[in-house]
């Protein structure tokens, strides 16, 4: 069975790996023939290459199509309509916590994509709920996946907060909030640390570095790291911080839960569908510096709560292992 996978495959050019980089490999392991597009840099060049990919592989059994809410939304619209003309079965794979706003902004265009698909795959209960609320019916929930064997669970003793932040540096993900939290923590824990892992996306990396300097705190900025390298680095840290203003189900948060890092995150988008606050992680309002620091202090002062939280998170992570998730994909594709 042949699958044509359309998405932004840009890890080779310094960008963070996306679903197309990981899921395509997993599907190949299941004996699917998978062809991917596109690695081209530049939006126009990438779109042209995607169209060429469709025309060259028009006999593919399915077109799997990463679907985002911002400028890449137009890839999904154009490719989906081309698939309709050619009579190809296409499956939008929904990403981005701001997709509901796109549904409201362009309802007719969205209906032309999602009402005519073979099915729409939502990796979060949040997106499934938001699509169903707007009348879409052809939806399947399949969570993002990790290979649990690659994530060694580690129980951590927290006496001094050593915070890890892993994300692309983009204004959407509000990286400066992590600096604010560090500044607040250092008033009580002078040895508190912060490591921020991720590539530049929109100028936010340099802005965050300047913000840290302005606030007089030392922060370790690693730039982009391979997954295995930041997983190894995570052994030196004891809290995972997620500061985003919009989100779906970030894989880095799922990975932190698998590793035994207690997660403190903003309560936005799909995060409350991923984390049950107080049970397997902690959710606070966006931009609430004081609440974030209060949660971290509570983790330091209540070891039993911290231990139970990370154990619950690891148990949840087991349901995201590829050996479980592949059953859902096979039920659609076979």
Globular, elongated, flat, extended or rod-shaped: what is the shape?
globular
The secondary structure category is: alpha/beta
Q: Based on DSSP secondary structure assignment, what is the total number of beta strands?
A: 12
User: What is the percentage of strand-forming residues?
Assistant: 15-25%
Distance between the termini: 8 Å
Task: Compute the average pLDDT.
Answer: 95
Structure description:
With 334 residues, the protein is α/β, with parallel strands linked by helices. The protein is built from 14 helices and twelve strands. The protein has helices spanning 19-29, 43-56, 73-86, 99-105, 107-114, 125-133, 176-186, 204-214, 227-233, 251-259, 271-274, 289-301, 303-317, 322-333, and strands spanning 2-6, 33-37, 62-67, 90-94, 120-122, 139-141, 162-166, 193-197, 220-223, 239-242, 263-266, 282-284. It starts with a strand and ends with a helix. The mean pLDDT is 95.
